[in-house]
Amino acid sequence: MNRPKWLRPRVGQNRRRPASKDAEIRREEELRQAQRESAALEPGGRRSFRQDRSFRQEMRAARLRQEEARKRAEEEASARRKVRLEAQAYINGQADSPEPGTETDSPLEEARRARLQRQRNRRLGRKRTPEPEQGTPEGGRSRRRKPKRRLNRAKVALLVASAALLIASYVLLHQPWLAFGQLQVVGDTAVTLDEVKEMGDASEPLNIFNLNRKKLLSSLRSDYRVEKAELSLGWPNILKVVITDRKPALYVAMEGGQYAKVDPTGHIIGLADGITGGDAPFVSGWHISQAELGDVTEDEEIQGILKFLGQLDGDLKQRINEIHVDDSQSIRIYLYNGIPVILGTPDNALAKLKTFKAICQELETKKIKAQYIDLTYEKPYIKL
To answer: What string of H, E and C letters represents the secondary structure of the chain?
Structure first.
């Protein structure tokens, strides 16, 4: 690495005086010149032509000296700035460019110096400097091309092998002769495992990857017994079919002598010659038209009763034994303690919902014995 100029010895070179010294000398010369001019004045206070001419020449010479002094001051400031930049570049590890007239290093030395410079910049965290342009044999200049990155053959082979393995695994797992996984029905439901397999087009041997899941969910959700159906995966290879059945809300008679089991949405989920269970109250004094399993009843009276029951808590619904509808479409609810509660029309029953809940709470806590309770009035009437 060449020594910077500010570190080279200066033998036999005289240093110039600072600009402040030149200015002081210049002021002394101007003072002496003014004294000479004042002494050379004529008795009348005027100068002669020869004196005026010499005065102009001296003034012009003074201006020239001032201009030369200004140029010298600029050159000195430029030299000091250059020395400061060279010192900063040397401290930061940058090499000076060769002076004109000196011999350049060999190409190998230049390449070694460039490599060391890149390593130094990498350690210092600097950005990569662009490669210098190299001259062509014809005298022109061309940019140095960056070397093309070559793909690692081992990485390419590993990627290809991984993709082929994934494709082969997918094809193998979807073969119809491969028995993989098992199907499991979860929930207290009336739907059997064989029905689930039939809905999903599952053949033997069972392969859960070949199961038509979209068709299975669509078939389950359209079944009149099913309220909700979902699929989930279990460890290690189990496909769970989670089914929630529709629950009965009440029993009501139909034309023809049968009884229909109706859920809270009005779907008919069961038909029987009589009331088969006590898990829901039955409606007496009223019947609906003939319907099939899965149909939705459109009877306004039944829909009003279902809407009223949907506003009650589970414990309170379990205390209702019978719902009677008379010829005037007035609703009367019989609790398990035998006390009837008259609600009137379905619209009036919804309006008296809070009062009905409060009355039932009083009957439960205070053990009131009454013949009936009428809520059709503005205030409840209790017949003792």
So the answer is: CCCCHHHCCCCCCCCCCCHHHHHHHHHHHHHHHHHHHHHCCCCCCCCCHHHHHHHHHHHHHHHHHHHHHHHHHHHHHHHHHHHHHHHHHHHCCCCCCCCCCCCCCCHHHHHHHHHHHHHHHHHHCCCCCCCCCEECCCCCEECCCCCCCCCCHHHHHHHHHHHHHHHHHHHHHCCCCCCECEEEEECCCCCCHHHHHHHCCCCCCCEHHHCCHHHHHHHHHCCCCEEEEEEEEECCCEEEEEEEECCCCEEEEECCCCEEEECCCCEEEEEECCCCCCCCCEEEEEEECCCCCCCECCCHHHHHHHHHHHCCCHHHHHCEEEEEECCCCCEEEEECCCCEEEEECHHHHHHCHHHHHHHHHHHHHHCCCCCEEECCCCCCEEEC
